[in-house]
């Protein structure tokens, strides 16, 4: 297959990014050494929809080294790094993505990766699975299984499974302990603020930050905001999580009241219409709106455009100002898409090393075990192997249970 790129000439800069990332990914490095000799994915065809930047490219190259034919597109129109895409294409992976794809181009490139007739898929948000259960049902029978990266995608998979429609097994990588405890909390927490701060260049300390949603991602965003010196307000619909946020030291308000006090708003709920014109009307002049959830539906961007009497350019293309009828300006980051990827470099390298290690191991296990259609957890052995290797990589030793302790814990 021929790659679809913006500019193949950007490859040298992409190679440098990939090499830098690989040096900081010991888990993928350990898998890579085994894959180069054992080639456990020989004969497999893998279609990937993930944010196409350097860490993802290292994973895609690893799967190709394991013997698979690999085609990749981006799971977000604004998260592709064109230099990395060009470099990955030079390393033997078919790439169909570029930064700034239109919605139509975005959908067309997902169709292109499925033209591979995949036996395995790696999905982020359920885009490939949605196509395989709708327009490309002819290919679903050939899919051995796959892995899903994010909370939103797992939610969609479970809905398909409940309806009895999921046609192949999928591993919910997002739900693994080494994923949601670290990727969602520390990865989203750090990368979201990296995207906001590099885009706006405003101070966070002393401001009021409103975090919509207190799942693992929301915990990370709120915790990092607190560490940066912000006053943090959490909005929630789940009374248990609202209590957790309260006991973690954060103020909890409904969005209609939080809208009046917030300086920076970050949505991380996975749901639509979290911030709407009702809330825009209550916000301060200069309020900043950012989304860290998978889809660009949490902030009602169309409603923001509709209620504004004028638009203003920001300090860079990732910032747009919307002047309200009374003269207040609200600033939207990254068009309401994932601010940490559309306006930043995504999660830290070491964090994605954990998640992508689980992705590779889960695909490999699917080729051996061939389970029935359904949503499956990451195998505990794979989760613990990644955890142990991470500790080894940073030079940390832990205690081991003695046989007597194991017997005690197993007894009644």
UniProtKB/TrEMBL annotation:
Pfam families: AdoHcyase, AdoHcyase_NAD. Binds 1 NAD(+) per subunit. It comes from the Bacteria. Keywords: Cytoplasm, Hydrolase, NAD, One-carbon metabolism. It catalyses: S-adenosyl-L-homocysteine + H2O = L-homocysteine + adenosine. Pathway: Amino-acid biosynthesis; L-homocysteine biosynthesis; L-homocysteine from S-adenosyl-L-homocysteine: step 1/1. InterPro entries: Adenosylhomocyst_ase-like_sf, Adenosylhomocysteinase-like, Ado_hCys_hydrolase_NAD-bd, NAD(P)-bd_dom_sf, S-Ado-L-homoCys_hydrolase_CS. Its main location: cytoplasm. The keyword Cytoplasm applies. Its cofactor is NAD(+). NAD(+) binds at residues 150-152, 184, 213-220, 236, 292-294, 340, 347. It is found in: Cytoplasm. Its EC number is 3.13.2.1. Belongs to the adenosylhomocysteinase family. PANTHER family: ADENOSYLHOMOCYSTEINASE. This is Adenosylhomocysteinase. It comes from Candidatus Hydrogenisulfobacillus filiaventi.
